[in-house]
Amino acid sequence: MRAAELHRLARELRAIALVATKNIGSDRVNAGELSVLEDIARNPGATIAEITHRTGLAQSLISRITHAMADAEILTIDSDASDRRKVRIDLVPDVRAMILERANSSISEAIATCTPRLSPDQRHALEQHLAAAEQLLRPVPEH
After folding, report:
1. Which residues, at least 6 apart from 37, have a Cβ–Cβ distance to it below 8 Å?
2. 94-124 as b/e: b if 16+ CB within 10 A
3. 61, 87, 98, 142: which has the fewest C-beta neighbours closer than 10 Å?
4. pTM to 2 decimals?
5. 77: exposed, middle or buried (C-beta count within 10 Å: 0-12, 13-18, 19+)?
């Protein structure tokens, strides 16, 4: 595979991800915002540093995203009770439920929608290969 092919593949995978997460309407968010929202939904009360570590995004970007989302009343930012220098971030309950529902959606239907030329067996193989690639590329948790 050449670099140009990898870019094309990334665009196609992004399209499948957008369909799978239903991130295609007027409430669509960009990939960085979605990554932050999904991380907070799975880790209520997270700190900026924790989100930075798990998402691999820049701390300044996460700060901008969380403050904009707080202004839009999508999440809350509160001081940590044990360390006033830290803040804890949480989604409002309705948003958490929506984000988790979208994030936990199966990709099977999205693959079918985005790859109409593939047979059902080819779509299944693609889903299996994507799962294997995700496992290989998953960050190793630090202890």
Report:
1. 29, 69, 74, 75, 91, 95, 99
2. ebbebbeebbeeebeebbeebeeeeeeeebe
3. 142
4. 0.77
5. middle
SS (H, E, C) 26-83: CCCCCHHHHHHHHHHHHCCCECHHHHHHHHCCCHHHHHHHHHHHHHCCCEEEEECCCC
Closest CA to 75 of 99, 59, 52, 54: 99
Q: Is the pLDDT of residue 27 over 80?
A: no
30: Cβ–Cβ under 8 A, 6 or more apart, which residues? none
Spatial neighbors of 70 by CB under 8 A, at least 6 apart, are 76, 77
CB 31 within 8 A of CB 14: yes
The alpha-carbon radius of gyration of the chain (Å, integer) is 17
Angle 48-130-122 from CA coordinates, rounded to 5°: 155
> By the 8 A CB rule, do 100 and 41 touch?
yes
Helix (H, G, I), strand (E, B) or coil at 91: strand
Give me the torsion for CA of 63, 52, 92, 101, rounded to 10°. Answer: 140
Query: Kindly report the CA angle at 109 between 8 and 112, in degrees rounded to 5?
Result: 55
